[in-house]
Amino acid sequence: MNKTDTDQVLTTLQQRVSHPRLAEPGPSREQLDALYKAAMRAPDHAWLRPWRFIEVSGDQRELLGQWMAESAKEDDPELDDKQTTKLSNAPLRAPLVIIAWAKIVPHPKVPPIEQILATGAAVTNLLNAAHAQGIGAVWRTGNPAYSPSLKTRLGLKEEDAIVAFLYLGTPTGEAKPIPGLAPADYVTQLGQADR
Ligand SMILES: Cc1cc2nc3c(=O)[nH]c(=O)nc-3n(C[C@H](O)[C@H](O)[C@H](O)COP(=O)(O)O)c2cc1C
């Protein structure tokens, strides 16, 4: 890679931000393919390929919202109407929602946590690839990510894990400032861990 390419890659990685306000259009199929190709280069112990992605767009977002609300009510019958409505409308906040989940398999050397971490790494690659293409994206979880009832509705098994609801679309509103974090505040040398 020449220096210009290297600088561009580093700038992309160093300037990614989330975009909570997203409008039409969503990413094209070509752009999505590029996202998934990046996702699939995430580090992955024993090459288990645990990551899975469910695309939800158009009217299907209403069905997802309905499933989120029904599942939440099943998990917590006390849930009030305001919270249920909020969940029903949640997927409508972007043209495309991608549910990233980890398909967990038993493995003598790769515990479930590593399969979930690999899927999280895939999600990060996907977000960076979205940013590189000017696609707005935000990683969300919330209670639906931990709802056994929603997992069942989505066709996942008990051992599987929902890692992210990725909201994608065209960024709107003011560009978010890039926080100026100092790496030195997060790095120590051996024996000097800052607790
Ligand atoms: C595992 C995980 C779950 C998250 N869940 C939510 C969420 O449910 N709602 C939300 O507003 N932000 C959530 N976030 C944070 C946003 O994705 C985002 O990182 C945050 O708003 C900071 O913005 P930035 O990415 O531009 O620094 C989550 C992040 C991670 C890593």
Task: Note the topology.
Blueprint: H1 3-14, E1 22-23, H2 29-39, E2 51-57, H3 60-75, H4 81-89, E3 96-102, H5 112-132, E4 136-140, H6 148-154, E5 161-171
Antiparallel strand pairs: 1-5, 2-3, 3-5, 4-5
Helix pairs in contact: 2-5, 3-4, 3-6
Q: Would you write up a description of this structure?
A:
This protein is of the alpha+beta class and 195 residues long. It has one domain: NADH Oxidase, CATH 3.40.109. The chain is 39% helix and 16% strand. The chain is built from six helices and five strands. Strands 1, 2, 3, 4 and 5 form a five-stranded antiparallel β-sheet that branches. The model has no long low-confidence stretch (mean pLDDT 96). Bound molecules: flavin mononucleotide. Residues 17-18, 138-142, 176 line the site of flavin mononucleotide. Residues 17-18, 138-142, 176 line the site of flavin mononucleotide (FMN).
Largest sheet properties: 5 strands, antiparallel
| Elements, N to C (H/E) | HEHEHHEHEHE
CATH class: Alpha Beta
Number of domains: 1
Reported by name, the CATH topology is: NADH Oxidase
Structural class: alpha+beta
The CATH architecture name reads 3-Layer(aba) Sandwich
CATH homologous superfamily caption: NADH Oxidase
Bound ligands: flavin mononucleotide
DSSP helical segment count? 6
Low-confidence stretches: none
Q: How much helical structure, as a percent, in the residues?
A: 25-40%
> Alpha-carbon distance between the termini?
39 Å
How many strand segments?
A: 5
**Beta-strand content estimate:** 15-25%
Rg over alpha carbons: 18 Å
Mean pLDDT: 96
Shape category: globular
